[in-house]
Amino acid sequence: MLDTGLKILLVASEVAPFAKTGGLADVAGSLPKALLLQGNDVRVVLPRYRSISGFNTIGDFPVQVGPRKETCIVRTSQIEAKSPEGVRFVPVYFLDNYHYFDRERYYMFPDEAERFAFFDLACLKMCEALNFIPDVVHCNDWQTGFIPLLIKERARNNPVWEGVASCFTIHNLRYQGNFPRDVLYLLGLGQEYFHPEAVEFYGQVSFMKAGIMYADVINTVSVTYSREIQTPEYGEGLDGVLRKRAKDLYGIINGINYHEFDPKTDPRIFKNFGPDDLEVRKENKYALQREVGLPISDKPLIGVVSRLVDQKGLDILLEAMPSILSLDVEFILLGTGDKFYEEAFSALKKRYPDRVAVFIGFNGVLAQRIYAGSDIFVMPSRFEPCGLGHLIAMRYGSIPIVRKTGGLRDTVMDYDRDSGTGNGFVFEEYSAEALTEAVRRAVSVYRDAGYWQRLVRDTMGLDFSWNKSAALYTELYLEALGRKRRVERPA
Ligand code: ADP
């Protein structure tokens, strides 16, 4: 095991269990525990949203955001990291500012650029105020994109920052944080950065591009996605910039937290079970059917837990639904997102009330019950940086059907009945027909109970924990320290 003793600050706009809308929160809440158990001094920082309350204040300082002088209050909590040696704790810092973050949701406000400019600036000032200067700042997604450049700028006047390296992780390239150019002024950066070789992106300033340009190392959350985003098809306009930094661009697959997501102990599911008591698993299926108003039966139960957005392949899923339902299956979906999909799936439930259950909303308990009670978990994504839903599903014995893209491609191997190899069903072409065909194959194996049980048991035994990936992150941080660059200001 690596025991590098690095000081790491992980920065993210959402961290489970404090604030979560998607997979980023899971990663930001679970990777630090694994890094801690590998001997690092790791701490986590996120905004203090309205839904986060009741934590102690440990300090405050002013932050200049363009013309505004704002106060940042630091509150603190911790994340528990259990290991065979006992319990340890990751310190968590919440950056609190009433004006920017005391609001009813996390994102999508007209002053989004200013909110996260404040956050990026405040992260550096917090390190100085707490006298915690990390070896590596690990930034995640566009909300943290200016931190690598701010570190380099800060190092010009304050030598404590000279030794600090940055790592920028792209969890989803689609969300880029592109805003009018005055955001540079808010960040205290000169207009010389408004340049195609710097952070200008089609007439705007891009937080995502800033992270890609100035971090010492960059990574995405699977090897396949790290390659895909260097092509025009998946590059979201940034493929050229990514190709330029190809030698500093890595892919590390996400893990899931094996303590939180453990069917043997998870208090959210009806009855705990392991790979060797699949009869108990079945009781979870019946209980789920009862809870959501589906007929209690042994028909294959297909589950979906997803943000309802274009990326997730919901158009082909909707198109395929009549054919899928003709295979004599039951279907349950939990999700929230675009109105169009919310309405389309609600209409589907009206049309097939005895075979389809649909829940619009975010519900962590129901999500776990779907993982534990469904037989098959569908993720037909158009693109998928890593994907966590299918990893959680596998741990709970729900067999994934996935499209061959990004992290789905790296973690699911197509099942072959003859050799018994594989852990799911994979299709490649982005079409309702290809998806239906994969469901048909899965259902046909399901009807052969002996094969199916073996597949479920073997899949539940696979290791998608953070152990391996956290060690890869530690190596990546060392790379970042080795590649630390001085950045010349654009002329
Ligand atoms: P993404 O980050 O693109 O949303 P991932 O598969 O990486 O997709 O992560 C999704 C995470 O969010 C999983 O933990 C999943 O269980 C959870 N999730 C998604 N939608 C919901 C929902 N409506 N209710 C509860 N949990 C959800």
From TrEMBL:
A Pfam family: Glyco_transf_5
Protein's GO biological process: glycogen biosynthetic process
Record has Transferase as a keyword: yes
Residues that bind ADP-alpha-D-glucose: K20
Record GO terms (molecular function): alpha-1,4-glucan glucosyltransferase (ADP-glucose donor) activity; alpha-1,4-glucan glucosyltransferase (UDP-glucose donor) activity
EC number: 2.4.1.21
InterPro entries assigned to the protein according to its UniProt record, in alphabetical order: Glyco_trans_1, GS/SS, Starch_synth_cat_dom
Pathway, per record: Glycan biosynthesis; glycogen biosynthesis
Signal peptide: none
SUPFAM superfamilies: UDP-Glycosyltransferase/glycogen phosphorylase (SSF53756)
Domain Glycosyl transferase family: 293-444
Residue ranges of domain Starch synthase catalytic in the record: 7-244
UniProt KW keywords: Glycogen biosynthesis, Glycosyltransferase, Transferase
Catalysed conversion reaction: [(1->4)-alpha-D-glucosyl](n) + ADP-alpha-D-glucose = [(1->4)-alpha-D-glucosyl](n+1) + ADP + H(+)
Keyword Transferase: yes
Family of the protein in this entry: Belongs to the glycosyltransferase 1 family. Bacterial/plant glycogen synthase subfamily.
Free-text function comment from the UniProt entry: Synthesizes alpha-1,4-glucan chains using ADP-glucose.
Name of the protein this chain belongs to: Glycogen synthase
Species per Swiss-Prot/TrEMBL record: Candidatus Fermentithermobacillus carboniphilus
Species lineage: Bacteria, Bacillati, Bacillota, Candidatus Fermentithermobacillia, Candidatus Fermentithermobacillales
